[in-house]
Amino acid sequence: xTDAMFILPGFFKVLFLMxxxxxxxxxxxxxxxxxxQVKNHLLAWLVLMFSAAVLFFIATYEKSLYFHPAYxxxxxxxxxxxxxxxFLLMYVRASFxxxxxxxxxxxxxxxxxxxxxxxxxxxxxxxxxxxxVSELGRLxxxxxxxxTCVCYYKFRTYSKWGSSGVYSAKTIQYLRWxxxxxxxxxxxxxxxxxxxxxxxxxxxxxxxVIVKLLTTVGIYAIAYLNVQHAQQVAPVTLTVPAxxxxxxxxxSLDESKALAVREQLLAxxxxxxxxxxxxxxxxxxxxxxxxxxxxxxxxxNERLGVGFxxxxxxxxxxxxxxxxxxxxxxxxxxxxLDTGFNNKVSFNKxxxxxxxxxxxxxxxxxxxxxxxxxARLN
Length: 378
Known about the structure:
The protein has 378 residues and is mainly α.
């Protein structure tokens, strides 16, 4: 880095310094929250990563700090970014009542470890211009984008069953904003990274400033809403009837196993749509998951608040709604068979239970007709 590159305006130095320090204070506030401690601790780590990234941004454009022997190089930014992505994933999982740490959890920290080694090498070995680290930074950016996509997939998979939970509607709305922020952040990082070698340094500097401004506003807005509305954005938890609690009181199924089964179950029905098979029984689903029937039944009742029949029929009705909205003009009986029902009667009954109207009435609504007019779908 040349002398001409140390041109971060003093106004932004002060602004980012204040933001970084406020972020550290907010981290402490989140850590001290007594409700939803696991989720708030993960969010505290996430805020800390971004606060440190903002402070590190100042150091990168401060000549006395940049040439200090302990300066870790730009790899430090990717350490914070990849670690922040991991905390985001755990935060999303915890918000849906899942075990925060995914399977093979340690693998997720390999990118962070990789950039930590680069940072140590930058301190221990003679200085270079750092271009090799900038090139390797693409790996960090790809990792952040991939984890953001994984978080969105988890959100889509689990949010459809969040309606059974306490404060779940607000939780889902809140998480949607969180993921929108990280998607925007990822896009801005990609734009900045692509344009960095193609534009004058002053332009790339101000692109970085814009990214940091958006980051500052977004992460503190997320944390502020979490603190202000702690109850409304509580993790999605299901209200289990007392008789179900009594029924499974002596079950050997522990918490971590139940959460793992729920995750596998929702992933299976989301990707393979096994529920569209007619005469699909609970044993068929249990066999697909390689678990006993009673374990599946317990997970459905305790973790999703539904029995097997309602679980499958809800998914089938959602598929029917999707087909009707896409312009499917099949007769009701054909639509029933296509979505896994054995006959028109059971299809009509389930459709009305989950939507409040019959398939014919729903089709009329799509056509802009009165719902009591015969749609001639029969």
